[in-house]
Amino acid sequence: MRKQFCLFLLLLFVAELAVLWHFAMQDYDEVQDAVAVNEVIHTLQDDWRNLETHRNRTALDYVVLDGGGAVLFRTKPGLSESIHQAILHRDTILDVPGEGKVLIYNDAAGKQQAGRQAAVAGLGILIAVQTGACLVYYFYLERNVIRPFRQLKDFAGRIAEGNLDIPLKMDRFNLFGAFTESFDIMRAELKRARRAEAQANAAKKELVAELSHDIKTPIASIQAAAEVGAALAQRVGRDSGAALEQGRPMAAGIRENYLQIIRKAEQINTLVSNLFTAALEEMEQLSVTPIDMPSGELRELLESADYLHRAMIPDIPECLLYADRLRLQQVFDNLFANSYKYANTEIEIRLRTGDGCLAVEIVDQGGGIGEEELPLLKEKFKRGKNTEKIEGAGLGLYISDYFMRAMQGALVVENGGKGLKVTVMILLSGYRSGAETAR
After folding, report:
1. Which of 94, 136, 330, 341 fits a 20 to 30 Å CA distance from 151?
2. DSSP assignment string, 302-365
């Protein structure tokens, strides 16, 4: 189709050039027809005495003059009527033997005008045909090229928006039929891949649920064994006689260790339960449910987090906190675990109130980190340069910061003194937002 159309346009262009060439090369200053001229001379001689009855038997126009130059006869008005005018108009001037002169009109200008009109008409027809052909080809391109590409554009927009259900309309006989069919095959493959991804995610969640169930079983066993051990330690301490008075503190310490195991097992059991509703990499899905809790419970959380007993817990001001006990325990566990792992020094705990919060400052003596790295520590998978040789995922501070923001508090990381200072800002109950209060 394209080759035939281009050939057709080329032929039209050649025809236009031919018309212009013919018009340019035409010579309109041609010699009068000798036969017709002789016919005029003979008829004039025959009719000279009675020119009123003279009739023009040729296609020529002429004017007849007598010997003095007066006009005796004309075939039509507007012709040269003197020798001077005939010379200027390049008319043919002939003598009528013995009578006068005849001025045969030179019609070259008229022929030139007629030729020009014929050329213009021919060019007009050719240009009209060319324009019509171009319009026909434009509509052909609109239907077979532009419209399919416009449909592809709309189709790509739907794909970008995630709509994979609407197929791409195809015309197999179209120039781009196979091309558009390939795009629709791509849509079908994307839809199949997305369905497979959804099935894989569902399978992953089922696997997490199954593993969570399996993990709960040994945790329950550990918790039960710890409860038995705590009960036995309590019985040993109660049944010891006066002679074994010095053994009672030892039994009390053993029982406290068992109780610590029980608390940690309960915490692990709660955390494992979260795996039913959230993947580990999607921390935002972990629910945070802050409630009012007395500040006295903070000591138990700090003691539970500091299982190596490297910090002295100061007196805690009496107030009512707004926090999720489980998530706050996780925050302290992460902070103490980081201090044990990276600083490995004694830990100082400071408490202060202000700005509607109870601030718990946890300070180690590990030298801190570079100031330019501080803003990055609360981002996912970010760690300081001094931790490259120590195993870790870079999620502890990220998770802790998320939990504190969800509880309307804050987590502030900065260098303080000889090490790193992390401040846990716990919101006081009377300062929680109106939206949370209404809830």
Report:
1. 136
2. HHHH-TT--EE--PPPP-EEEE-HHHHHHHHHHHHHHIIIII-S-EEEEEEEETTEEEEEEE--
Q: What are 133's two structure tokens?
A: 């052909």
Is residue 73 pLDDT above 60, yes or no? yes
Residue with tokens 């945790």: 219
Q: Which residue do the tokens 């004017």 mark? A: 63
Here the tokens at position 381 are 């998978």
Q: Which single residue is written with the structure tokens 């003596």?
A: 365
Give me 151's structure tokens. Answer: 């449909």
Separation between Cα atoms, residue 21 and residue 370, nearest integer Å: 87
Compute the residue count for the chain: 439
Handedness of CA 404, 348, 393, 377 (dihedral sign): positive
CA nearest to 356, candidates 274, 425, 272: 425
Q: How far apart are CA 51 and CA 60, in angstroms?
A: 17
DSSP letters along 98-135, please? TTEEEEE---HHHHHHHHHHHHHHHHHHHHHHHHHHHH
Cα 291 from Cα 407, distance rounded (Å): 9
Summarize the chain as % helix, strand, coil (round to 5).
Answer: 60, 15, 25
> How does pLDDT run across 44-72, given as a tens digit for each residue?
888 888 888 888 888 888 998 888 888 88
- Let me know if 418 is exposed, middle or buried by CB neighbors in 10 A (0-12, 13-18, 19+): middle
As a whole number, mean pLDDT of residues 85-106 equals 84
Furthest C-alpha separation in the chain = 183
Average pLDDT over residues 400-426: 92
Q: Residue 35: its pLDDT value, please?
A: 83
Question: What DSSP assignment string belongs to 62-88?
Answer: EEEEETTS-EEEESSTTS--SHHHHHH
* Encoded tokens for 150: 């416009």
- Cβ neighbors of 426 (< 8 A, separation 6 or more) are 298, 321, 322, 323, 328, 357, 358, 359, 360, 407, 409
Asked whether 275 and 212 are in contact (CB, 8 A), the reply is: yes
Which 8-state DSSP code applies to residue 30? P
The tokens of 263 are what? 């608390």
| Secondary structure of residue 160 in the 3-state scheme | helix
Please report where in the chains the tokens 């040789």 appear, as a residue. Answer: 389
Strand (E) or helix (H) holding 416: strand 410-416
What is the pTM assigned to this prediction?
A: 0.45
Specify the pLDDT at position 184: 74
Contact at 8 Å (CB) between 347 and 336?
yes
β partners of residue 295:
none
Q: Please name which of 327, 328, 366, 368 lies closest in space to residue 347, comparing C-alpha atoms.
A: 366
DSSP notation for 218-267? HHHHHHHHHHHHHHHHHHHHHH--GGGGGGHHHHHHHHHHHHHHHHHHHH
Identify the DSSP state of 268: H
